[in-house]
Amino acid sequence: MTQPSQNNPVKIFKRHVNRLALSMISYEFILIIVTFIWLMFSSLGQGLLNNASADAVTAAGIETASSNGWPYIFGALIAMAIAMAFRKRRQLQEDLTHIRLPMRPYVFFIFFALIMAVQLVNRFFVAGMEASLNALGYSMAESMQSLEHIGSSVSMFLYVVIFGPVAEEVVFRGIVLRSLEKYGKVFAIVFSSIGFGLMHGNLYQGLFAFGVGLILAYVACEYSFKWAVVIHVLNNLLFGEAVLFLSNRFGENTIAAVLLALYFVATVFAAIVLIKNKADIRAYLQTNRTEKGVYRAAFSSIFFVVYVVLNLILIRVSITKFIG
């Protein structure tokens, strides 16, 4: 049970949190900026070569954004490299190579069942949120559709399945999580997961990313960083690219029904496991809890507040007027 002490006063603690918040800001917004610049010049170049109209250039930019993964790969690598600069090299090496418990197949399956349970909860959340927004005259359907219709090019596959997950794990389960672990594992897990959820910039992915972030952060803390990467990669491969492929082959409604049944079974299994191990879970939370005041100090740190506000703006932008 730890907190900022006399050797590590609140001001130093908040300075540390601000530094980590800056690493999250730099990762997210450098990724956005680099990707935007790439797409803009690519679209303008195509327009000049083809003597296209402004509408045609815009359409080409949208098509490139949904099918060309190279801008995202390039942006993720630059953003990750800059975020890594906020952590000393020796510390970062320890972050990414430490190993605690061995990962057994049964435990691995439990973590995947938990992720499917989060998928199911997120589906109900998204449906309820969309209905509530519709009642107020708004919708997040546009952001949902843009994510569901990502192109199937090789470069986009590489970004979604490999480069994106690896970069996100380095930043959130490597730099942020491991930097804060000394203040309490539970605090580090929660803080890094909130940052991860906000980073997605929309309600459709936000809750799911937060829930999965909790699972991946626990895996990184108690097993190893590499297993967090493996689970993240497999999640994007199976529930992203594989589902997209199967939906195109067998129909969206058929695959959606199969997934819903699979998520339900996994949720029941995960619930049984959690209930069976509730005493161990309670003991873990008690052993690794953080002293009162640490959360308040962290969440009131200026650059974390900036990070939250910037992502709330992105979330608001992703919500559009509802056309019934």
Describe this structure in words.
It is a single chain. The chain has one domain (10-321). 81% of the residues lie in helices and 1% in strands. The chain contains 14 helices and two strands. It starts with 9 loop residues before the first helix and ends with a strand.
Brief synopsis:
With 324 residues, the chain is mainly alpha-helical. Helix content is 81%, strand content 1%. It has a two-stranded antiparallel ribbon with strand order 1-2.
Question: What's the structural blueprint in terms of helices and strands?
Answer:
Blueprint (H helix, E strand, L loop, with lengths): L9 H41 L3 H14 L2 H15 L4 H9 L7 H31 L2 E2 L1 H8 L5 H27 L4 H15 L3 H20 L2 H26 L1 H25 L1 H10 L6 H6 L2 H17 L1 E2 L3
Antiparallel strand pairs: 1-2
Helix pairs in contact: 1-2, 1-3, 1-7, 1-14, 3-7, 5-9, 5-11, 7-8, 7-9, 7-10, 8-9, 9-10, 10-11
